[in-house]
Amino acid sequence: MPNPIPQPAMPQPAIAPPVERENYLNAKYGVWSWLLTTDHKRIALLYLLSITFFFFIGGFFALLIRLELLTPAGDLVQADTYNKLFTMHGMVMVFFFLIPSIPAVLGNFLVPMMIGAKDLAFPRINLLSWYLYIIGGVMMLHCMLTGGVDTGWTFYAPFSTNFTNTKIVEAGLAIFVAGFSSILTGLNFVVTIHRMRAPGMTWSRLPLFIWAHYATSIIQLLGTPVVAVTIVLVAAERALHLGIFDPKLGGDPLLFQHLFWFYSHPAVYIMILPSMGVVTEIIACFSRKRIFGYSFVAFSSIAIAVFGFLVWAHHMFVAGMSVYAALVFSLLSYAVAVPSAIKVFNWTATLYKGSIHYDAPMLYAFGFLGLFTIGGLTGLFLSALGINVHVTDTYFVVAHFHYIMVGGAVMGYLGGMHFWWPKISGKLYPEGWARLAALIVFIGFNLTFFPQFLLGYMGMPRRYYDYSHMPEFQILNVLSTAGATVLGVGYLLPMVYFLWSMRYGKPAPDNPWNAAGLEWKTPSPPPTFNFDEEPVVTWEAYNYDELDSPDKGAPHKEEVPVAR
Amino acid sequence: MPDSTVIGLHHEDEHHPELLHHFADAQQQRDSASLGMWVFLATEVMFFGGLFCAYLVYRHWYFPDFAAASKSIDATLGATNTAVLICSSLTVVLAVWAAQTARRTLLIVSLILTMLLGMAFLGIKGIEYREKFVEHHVPGASFSFDKVQVPGHPDQYANPHHAQIFFSLYFVMTGLHALHMIIGLGIFLWLLIMAWKGRFTPEWHTPVEIGGLYWHFVDIVWIYLFPLLYLIDRHP
Amino acid sequence: MSEHSNSAHAKSPLKMYFSIWAALLICTYITYKAAFIELGSFNAAVALGIATLKATLVALFFMHVWHASEKLTKLVVIAALFFLLLLLGLTMTDYATRPWS
């Protein structure tokens, strides 16, 4: 590795022994050993394959959208095709990539290992949630191939319930089923974190990745059922014209928005919180420092999860809700900025006077820091009632949430994939390529989405396929499309070299980054039950000062481990 | 202090046939299952919560129409069903107690009684649905709620559109509740088979416990549905 | 959870179960009868108050939240109710103040 991290003095096999030891990858062979597995690590890989598939489908739609916007005229696709493109892009990316991304892949893989457990509490339910995800995904694919949906990913009533004749019910059911997959994953994590911690792994010793996933699970558990029942109502309304959301029959379309955003606003935190957890791990490791203000970072995750439920109506300021309630929601929306800012401050303080290493995961973490901060601060613009009215439904909003979801969540996801890939695959990826990819992603991302802030501020509305009456917007749109191309290359690269590394990569040592955390104290790739002997934790999280101190002796045994 | 007893490394000696490999001991497995069910019930609260939210909004907006629509449902059937469910909750706690204290016959009888009461509930529900169907109170094309007086206002008729919203919520809420009852009956059938085979012991009867928690929760939902749907404004 | 086996409370809980059952039936009867009495806006209050009492009894004694349960169970129950109230309460801030604007 070009920029070596101080390795411990104790002898450690740099290369795996010639005879491959049994691990979760080679323990069993055959399709059924994967499709019927209850090993959380194998399920994580199943998720990795499936969400990557959906990521590229969603990316393909994004590409078509950007190509259409290259010229002001609507010349590539028809208006209704364009509507379907951005709808399916949103639905696929939100429900089939972002929400499962970090929790279902990295969370599934790492939560049991980080707390020193053999598996999640309910391995069979874990497998069930993958199957639910696949059933939902197949329904969504079928829906796409047979016509798709044109309402936008929010499928607002009454357009979705009374007017459009696209496949709302099928898409809704797909999301309903995938939602239960998400609920079951959250349930598994909560129970696992409460019940399965290794002896000595107290709450204050948990990696912050675990805290982030705990907070995420709370949202998944308490938010998702509400959108599920909303989908039931939409389906019933479409089938029978009940009038629940139809103003002609006395219903209130805004009620749909309340119920929808009660889940879908916190859902943003389902995407970003795990990413924050990943970034916390990476920053601590590559600054070689204990994370600054551990308990503040931990509780800010919980605070974000709870505050996230208080702010949903800021999506509805111009929809006709009560202005008094809008005032309340505007004020509450500012509150979310507090725990988010605490995190950013504490990451920065961790970096301060740290021994910083610019390995690929750290580059992604830096990218996350910058992009999340921009996304978060523009979120404050949007929570301010006055500015919100001005920029609602413009590209400003599109740029804002892409900075959070792509700049934040996807950057964290990629950073985490690079950080833990040696553990997952047992192989090292080419570091030079990885740094290059991180750079390309960062440049491509900013080139794509920063112009959209300007476009939105100048008044370009979202969801228009033709802006020929405003040709002055073209230059920024061309920049954005060019950036999307660069971004696409940046996303393809890691896939290529990860796959390459599985065959040709050098074997990874157990702890290539000399990182703290139980997952690094077991072989790469880990054995089926994670640890050869049950770990007992006697140290605090992120004990990098101990790891790096030259006289690093045997872990001291000053206290008897306390049971859970 | 011998570490192994504190942290439970050596648990092979107390290996129970139902103990899954990834748990350290039976206690951990039982606590996990119980917490899992409680967390699941929390999600169920929110699942029904969305419907309660819709109900609250429209009851607030269209109180007179809701009152008129509510009055057209048979409150006696609703009250009877409440009593039926409460009795089933009693048989469920008896089943759990029987499993705890190794009373196999009582366990089996309680499980059967619970299922019978559950089926009685669904039967009564069916009678109620049939009445609504005959009266054209099922939302949809054939819905009609014409010239129905608003309780307390003899000169005022309920708005059929608003009444249709009430009946929509009535059918969705009671329908989803009935679906939960049917799932509950499935769970209890499985418990009955397990009990019949004598699989439950005082040491291991977690399925009875968490199945019972589920049943009680469904009971609690009904405890709220009954006054909210049947008793909005009944007095003459 | 730790002390929920029968050894923790040696005396049989049957008496308690049957009294709760009786209380629940009585409450149902009162709810049913009270609905037919003119109480104005108190009709809803009485109906919901009794329903809450009944739900609490079921949760505390039939679902064993009162004894033989750890703090975590209580926390889960409270969290669920808290978020339910958030959903209902914050939604109603809109509906309650919409006529003002």
Topology record:
The complex is a heterotrimer of chains A (564), B (236) and C (101).
Chain A: H1 31-35, H2 40-68, H3 79-115, H4 123-145, H5 159-163, H6 168-195, H7 208-240, H8 253-287, H9 294-307, H10 323-351, H11 360-383, H12 385-391, H13 395-425, H14 431-458, H15 474-504, H16 544-548
Helix pairs in contact in A: 2-3, 2-4, 2-15, 3-6, 3-7, 3-8, 3-13, 4-6, 6-7, 7-8, 7-9, 8-10, 8-11, 8-13, 9-10, 10-11, 11-13, 11-14, 13-14, 14-15
Chain B: H1 3-7, H2 26-61, H3 63-71, H4 75-100, H5 104-134, E1 149-150, E2 153-157, H6 160-196, H7 206-230
Antiparallel strand pairs in B: 1-2
Chain C: H1 14-34, H2 42-62, H3 71-97
Helix pairs in contact in C: 1-2
Structural descriptors:
heterotrimer; A: 564 residues; mainly alpha; Cytochrome C Oxidase, Chain A; 16 helices; 65% helix; globular; disordered C terminus; C: 101 residues; 3 helices
Question: Can you describe what's shown?
Answer:
The complex is a heterotrimer of chains A (564), B (236) and C (101). Chain A has 564 residues and is mainly α. Chain A is built from 16 helices and no strands. Chain A has a single domain (40-521), classed as Cytochrome C Oxidase, Chain A. Chain B is an all-alpha fold and 236 residues long. Chain B has helices spanning 3-7, 26-61, 63-71, 75-100, 104-134, 160-196, 206-230; strands spanning 149-150, 153-157. Chain C has helices at 14-34, 42-62, 71-97. Chain C is flat, with a radius of gyration of 18 Å. Chain C has 101 residues and is mostly helical. Chains A and B meet through helix 6, helix 7 and helix 8 of A and helix 1, helix 2 and helix 6 of B.
What is the count of distinct domains of chain B?
1
What oligomeric state best describes the polypeptide chains here?
Answer: heterotrimer
Structural class call of chain B reads: mainly alpha
CATH architectural arrangement of chain A: Up-down Bundle
Which CATH top level class of chain A fits?
Answer: Mainly Alpha
CATH superfamily of chain A: Cytochrome c oxidase-like, subunit I domain
Mean pLDDT of chain B: 91
Summarize the structure.
The complex is a heterotrimer of chains A (564), B (236) and C (101). Chain B is mostly helical and 236 residues long.
